[in-house]
Structures are given as C-alpha cells and as structure tokens.
C-alpha cells in the first residue's frame, strides 16, 4: 500500500471487525482499531495476527460519549464503522440498544466530516431491509427498508434500521461524506478466536440439542469471509459509494439449519422439526430470546441479491458451508 494513513476500524474487538482487521493487515493497510477498553488490545493483536510492524494501533472510544472521536479520526483515510450492540434477546428498555447504535453512528460520521475524512463504510444489517408488509412472493432488495412499526421489529432490528437511516440522513445534509453500507444477514463461518459472542450463539444453541423442535424462523445467512471482503470492496471501489450492499447468500429456515447440522453430525441430538406455535408461546414465557423471535415465526422471506452477485460480480460462500464452518468452530471452541 502506498497510502500509509490508517483506516479507523471501530469496534475492532467484535466478531466481524476482527476478520476485517486481519484482512486489511494482510493487504498492507494500516489499521487504527477502536476499543471501549484497552484491556482487550492484546486479545485483538493475537486474533488478527498482528504483524508487529506498527501498522496496527488502538484508540479508546465509546459509542455513547464524544470524548476521543476527533483524535481517533485525525489523519485517517477512511472509517469502517462496525461498532454496534448485538444481543440475542431484547433488553427491558429498547432505548438501551437503540440510542448507542444511532448516536454512535452519528458520532462517527460527524467526526469524519469535521476531520475531512470523506470515505465511510458502515456495517448495517439485513434486518434494516427485511421487515415490512409486502405482497406474497416479494423478494426484498437493497432499495427496501424495514418498517420499525412492523410486528417483527425487535429492539435490535429497530436499532440497526434507525442507525442506518440516521447515516443516510446525515449524508443528505453533508454530501461531501461518501457512504456505503454493508448489510449482512446472520454472520456465520470461522471466527478469528473464541470470542465470537452473539453471532454464533444461534448455531451453538442448535448444536446443543437444548430444543426438541425449532421455531420456523427465516434467517438470511452469510459467511464472515464475505462480510469482510465486501467491506474492503466498498472501501476500495468508488462505484459502491451511495450503495447498500446486501451481504447474504440465501435465506434458510431454522428447521432446515437443524437438518443440515443433524446430517453433518448424526451422533448429536439435533432438532429438525418445526415447533408448533402454541408450544413456542408457552416456552417464550421463560426464554427471552425466543420471546424476541416469536413475531418472526412462520414469516415468509425472499431476497434478491443480484445487485451484489451481478452488479458487483461477487460470489458468496454457500450458506450451507457457512453454517458448517460455524458448527466446527463451536465444537472446537474456535
């Protein structure tokens, strides 16, 4: 790389960001990773295989506070803003999730504008696209937006939708900021270490055999390898400016994921049958993550990713492979 100015990568200790940091370093970039606490710096260095040549540095930032943002962005060539809360179950107060996501995005964009850093890539989500009343058989595209009043709109779904909308609103008012969003589905695949958090907890739960049946919930799946590659593609290709990049290979339903894992690991007691709604309602009284997912049970979902696969000439890792890589990581403890 001839440009030695760093890329500010927020939330560098996250599941997605660690893979992005690794791939950026492999390509010769300088990476300035943000952490809420410097206590995790050594963890990140180990996970991303820090080459030790000074190209990986850290700054301390908090999504909910202004302190440090201006200094963090100074002298950077671009920002990859991945930091955002991602719990499996909704908090008691949804604003505890929404406010950090929205305010953190605004802080990143404001800091970029103030420092004259015009290139920003934001990690959004497929959940900012998928949930709205649509005709039967409709396949969602990157032009679609989630309706935050939809019955399926959990606190997490609202947080990602409102944060991305805030980003595009900011760009309308500040057109010098060149924004691309990457909208992943459930990010599977091989983590960089064993701190994979919520992203693989769903696969971990299915593998555990805890549930005798599985809720019939649609899940768009993508491999972390692709999520990272699309962030870097967005960074490097001017034709992605102004785009929302759908980062998903396919939509799989939970029983189908169970069937795939059961076939791969026949000695494990992995559920494959869809659970009846009445049973799920009863179980949801005691399981907060299931309660959050209840509005999505039986929900139809189709996607059209041709803007990514044809428009950007991108080929995804197959969803089945991404799921199997996750299972291998769960079993091995990454």
TrEMBL record:
Highest taxon listed in the record's lineage: Bacteria
Annotated family: Belongs to the NAD(P)-dependent epimerase/dehydratase family. Dihydroflavonol-4-reductase subfamily.
Name recorded for this polypeptide: Dihydroflavonol-4-reductase
Entry annotated with the keyword Oxidoreductase: yes
This protein's UniProt keywords: Oxidoreductase
Pfam families in the record: Epimerase
Domain NAD-dependent epimerase/dehydratase: 7-242
PANTHER family attached to this UniProt entry: NAD DEPENDENT EPIMERASE/DEHYDRATASE (PTHR10366), STEROL-4-ALPHA-CARBOXYLATE 3-DEHYDROGENASE, DECARBOXYLATING (PTHR10366:SF564)
The organism of origin for this protein: Thalassobacter stenotrophicus DSM 16310
Keyword Oxidoreductase: yes
InterPro entries given in the database record: Epimerase_deHydtase (IPR001509), NAD(P)-bd_dom_sf (IPR036291), NAD(P)_dehydrat-like (IPR050425)
């Amino acid at each position: 790389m001839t440009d030695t100015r760093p890329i500010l990568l927020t939330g560098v200790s996250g599941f997605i960001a660690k893979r992005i940091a690794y791939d950026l370093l492999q390509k010769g970039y300088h990476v300035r990773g943000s952490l809420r606490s410097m206590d995790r710096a050594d963890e990140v260095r180990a996970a991303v295989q820090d080459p030790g040549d000074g190209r990986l540095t850290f700054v301390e930032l908090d999504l909910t506070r202004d302190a440090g943002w201006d200094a963090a962005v100074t002298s950077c060539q671009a920002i990859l803003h991945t930091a955002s809360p991602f719990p499996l179950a909704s908090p008691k107060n949804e604003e505890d999730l929404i406010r950090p996501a929205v305010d953190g995005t605004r802080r990143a964009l404001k800091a970029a504008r103030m420092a004259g850093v015009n290139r920003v890539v934001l990690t959004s989500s497929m959940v900012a696209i998928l949930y709205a009343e649509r005709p039967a058989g409709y396949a969602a595209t990157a032009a679609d937006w989630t309706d935050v009043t939809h019955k399926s709109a959990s606190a997490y779904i609202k947080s990602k939708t409102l944060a991305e909308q805030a980003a595009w609103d900011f760009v309308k008012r500040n057109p010098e900021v060149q924004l691309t969003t990457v909208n992943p589905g459930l990010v599977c695949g091989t983590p960089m270490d064993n701190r994979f958090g919520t992203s693989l907890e769903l696969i971990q739960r299915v593998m555990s055999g805890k549930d005798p049946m599985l809720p019939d919930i649609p899940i768009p799946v993508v491999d972390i390898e692709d999520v990272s590659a699309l962030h870097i593609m967005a960074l490097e290709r001017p034709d992605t400016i102004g785009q929302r990049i759908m980062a998903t290979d396919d939509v799989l339903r939970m029983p189908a994921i169970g069937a795939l894992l059961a076939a791969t690991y026949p000695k494990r007691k992995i559920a494959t049958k869809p659970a009846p709604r009445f049973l799920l309602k009863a179980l949801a009284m005691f399981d907060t993550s299931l309660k959050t997912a209840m509005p999505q049970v039986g929900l139809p979902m189709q996607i059209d990713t041709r803007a990514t696969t044809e428009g950007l000439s991108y080929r995804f890792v197959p969803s089945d492979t991404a799921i199997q890589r996750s299972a291998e990581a769960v079993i091995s403890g990454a």
